[in-house]
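[recover] target loaded
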């Protein structure tokens, strides 16, 4: 399959970041550098991303099983438990809001449709509408008065430039573009509800479209807001009449009965909200310097992936080997090194829960850290570090407007020169990049709270969020170099005479 985003040209390091700067005092590589070993990385990726982990979906027993696996690794390595009540676990509640598949009733042309199997409510909004269905043969036709009426129409093919160039499967991207483009034509015309009839290409992706929307929306209360300037509280579920026009996707097979006219619909959509647990797994290594040991360097990953989804090429488990078993394995390698040879500062290792649900674990911990926030000196976060060109990588947060600490970035760049020597692709860190990659991982809540933070990545690929993201596809030689680079950066921060400062006047948002 061709890449939806071609490999971006690698660029040289930004010279201004290193101009006139001396290397950190911790010259070279510490002896424990040799403990970052390929055999350990291979084993840990294989176990965490094994089929037995069932994709480690956030808020499920599968995620808890993976979290216990991480905690047991922490124990074997010798990390000090830093979670609740002397354990490795910091618990928090996920708040989930979804369309109730049992309390909702959707009847079209006299037939009760099964939610998410035969009809997909496309937004988490309550709805109550009944009456005749008006068939609009061409969604581009604006002459039909749809005010207060239930409308049905065939999905339009999306314009090619409306299909986002990202790393999800083409079928799902096509479906999303077709749905959004057609629904938008009715959102402001006063329709009571809209039934979108799937075209053949979208019908083939019906299960994929249903799988994501059936899960609903996820949030965490009293946490760093999901967006800058937002509330730290979970908003109440929308009331009837709030939000967008209720819109539904039905199977292509319904087109003939709706097009012939005379159909009716009864649309009663109810929401349900409930909570269940997720967890951050946290361990530490105490520093050796009495003056600096109460300052903490953070190594950050997430243990969850995307669970069990519709089958693709004979497999339904989203194993999440690159996303994010590679970084968890790299963090464990760094932990072994720091236990063997501690730095002057202490080091905190965090596997954040439910990252794929919306950075829930990191948003919670950044608001409720296990050590005072002002003692967190830097966050070394990674997301997907084992794929793509063997000699390129990305350091997100290394250039404005995402740059929040020039001093921390300089340490990371020097560490790269003394270890992996990757050519750094700076395009993924720009605010104009279509992926918005900087805003999609666990360093972000810490950066928003003023902690120096960077994200290591080798970027997206065609297997992202698919069952093909499995251990067999990892470039382990590259993973070793990424893990060494991240560890050496942490060592420099942990042994530097002074902590890296946050640059004045930082504004991360676009």
């Amino acid at each position: 399959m061709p890449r939806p985003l071609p490999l971006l040209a690698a660029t040289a390091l930004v010279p201004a970041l290193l101009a006139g700067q001396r290397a950190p005092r911790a010259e070279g590589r510490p002896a424990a550098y040799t403990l970052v070993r390929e055999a350990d990385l291979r084993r840990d990726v294989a176990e965490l991303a094994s089929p037995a982990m069932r994709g480690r979906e956030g808020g499920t027993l599968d995620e808890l099983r993976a979290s216990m696996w991480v905690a047991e690794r922490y124990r074997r390595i010798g990390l000090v438990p830093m979670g609740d009540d002397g354990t490795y676990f910091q618990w928090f509640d996920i708040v989930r809001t979804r369309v109730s598949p049992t309390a909702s009733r959707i009847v079209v042309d006299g037939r009760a449709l099964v939610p998410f199997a035969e009809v997909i409510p496309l937004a988490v909004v309550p709805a109550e509408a009944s009456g005749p269905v008006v068939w609009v043969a061409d969604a581009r036709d604006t002459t039909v008065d749809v005010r207060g009426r239930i409308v049905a129409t065939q999905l339009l093919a999306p314009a090619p430039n409306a299909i986002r160039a990202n790393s999800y499967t083409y079928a799902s991207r096509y479906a999303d573009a077709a749905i959004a483009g057609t629904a938008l034509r009715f959102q402001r015309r006063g329709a009571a509800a809209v039934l979108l009839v799937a075209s053949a290409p979208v019908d083939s992706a019906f299960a994929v479209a249903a799988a994501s929307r059936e899960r609903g929306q996820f949030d965490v209360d009293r946490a760093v807001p999901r967006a800058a300037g937002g509330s730290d509280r979970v908003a109440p579920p929308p009331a009837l009449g709030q939000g967008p026009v209720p819109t539904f996707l039905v199977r292509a097979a319904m087109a003939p009965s709706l097009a012939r006219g005379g159909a009716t619909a009864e649309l009663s959509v109810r929401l349900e909200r409930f909570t269940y647990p997720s967890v951050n797994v946290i361990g530490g290594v105490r520093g050796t310097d009495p003056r600096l040991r109460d300052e903490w360097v953070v190594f950050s990953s997430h243990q969850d992936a995307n669970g069990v989804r519709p089958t693709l090429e004979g497999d339904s488990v989203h194993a999440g080997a690159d996303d994010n078993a590679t970084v968890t394995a790299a963090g464990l390698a760094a932990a072994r090194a720091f236990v063997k040879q501690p730095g002057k500062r202490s080091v905190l290792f965090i596997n954040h829960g439910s990252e794929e649900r919306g950075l829930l674990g990191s948003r919670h911990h950044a608001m409720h850290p296990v050590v005072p926030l002002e003692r967190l000196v830097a966050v070394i976060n990674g997301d997907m570090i084992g794929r793509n060109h063997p000699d390129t990588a990305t350091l997100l947060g290394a250039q404005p407007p995402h740059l929040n600490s020039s001093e921390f970035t300089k340490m990371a760049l020097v560490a790269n020169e003394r270890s992996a020597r990757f050519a750094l692709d700076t395009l993924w860190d720009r605010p104009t990049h279509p992926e918005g990659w900087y805003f999609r991982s666990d360093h972000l809540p810490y950066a928003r709270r003023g902690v120096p933070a960077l994200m290591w990545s080798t970027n997206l690929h065609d297997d992202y969020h698919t069952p093909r993201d499995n251990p067999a596809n990892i470039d382990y030689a590259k993973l070793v170099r990424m893990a060494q680079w991240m560890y050496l950066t942490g060592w420099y921060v942990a042994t530097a005479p002074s902590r890296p400062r946050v640059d004045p006047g930082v504004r991360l948002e676009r």
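[recover] notes: The first helix runs from residue 15 to 18.
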